[in-house]
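Sample pair:
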Amino acid sequence: SVAFDHTVERLDVEAGRLYTAAVSQAHLFYHFSKRAFLRSILQYVRYDRNAALYTFPVSSLDERFFTQFLFSYKVNPQTVLYLGYSDNYYGDRAVDLTQTDRTFFAKIGYAWVI
C-alpha cells in the first residue's frame, strides 16, 4: 500500500507573509507474507521565511529530508525481529541538502512466558 500526504501552511501578518511551510510525506508498505513486511517513510519539509519580518535572526529557507526503511519478521507469536535504516538531510539558502546523520538499527522483541 502507498499513502501520500502534502500539507501547506502560510502565515500572513500586517507587513506581509511571514512564512510558508510545506510538508510532503509518503508511506510505502509491502507485505511479503503474514510474518514479514517492509515499510518506508519519506518526508520532505520546506520553510520559506521573510527574514526581514522577524525580530530575531532566522534563515530565509530551511529544508529537511528524512527517510526510514524498516523490515520486520515475526519468528513466532512471541518473537519479532526488526532491521532498519534511517537518515536525515538538511539544507538552507547557502547549503544544498546535505546528509547530517545516518542510523542502522536492529531489535529483537521476545515475550518471556513464566
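The first strand starts at residue 2 and ends at 13.
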